[in-house]
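agent: user wants the structure for L,D-transpeptidase from Denitromonas iodatirespirans. delegating to structure tool.
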Amino acid sequence: MKLLIDLATQEMRLMDADGTVLRRYRVSTATNGPGECRDSGCTPRGRHRIRARIGGGQPIRAVFVGRRPTGEVWSEALGAAHPSRDWILSRILWLSGLEPGRNRLGKVDSMQRYIYIHGTPDTEPMGVPRSHGCVRMANRDVVELFELVDTDTEVEIR
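agent: tool returned. relaying tokens verbatim.
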């Protein structure tokens, strides 16, 4: 399996080893566009792998802070009560760069930047760059994807 994330179209494709597209998802990447530097708020490009899968067994829309479930489940009322939170919901696929100097090590390390594929509030649009660097997905989509991929699945962001 391999994931290909296209920044221009805001689309993710899940492909098998032969390149056959198995699933397509609308995503939302960084408002600040592509970029690899720490604290840039940009989505890093290049080859990555899924370093960790976090949140299996949690309810859909479960809230995570610091990669730990808080016990909360996102709702519009919870969102309204905390309007400035950058919500990480449902599941987390934590990415690690594979290209030293581009997205691995030093100031460009995707893992140290905490770059994830994760769920976002249902009120957030997909297909529009709105994240702080991560790749956001609809909650049902990220739960489905989580069950289809393993750690070490390659992820290419271009």
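agent: one observation worth passing along. The helical segments are 76-81, 139-148.
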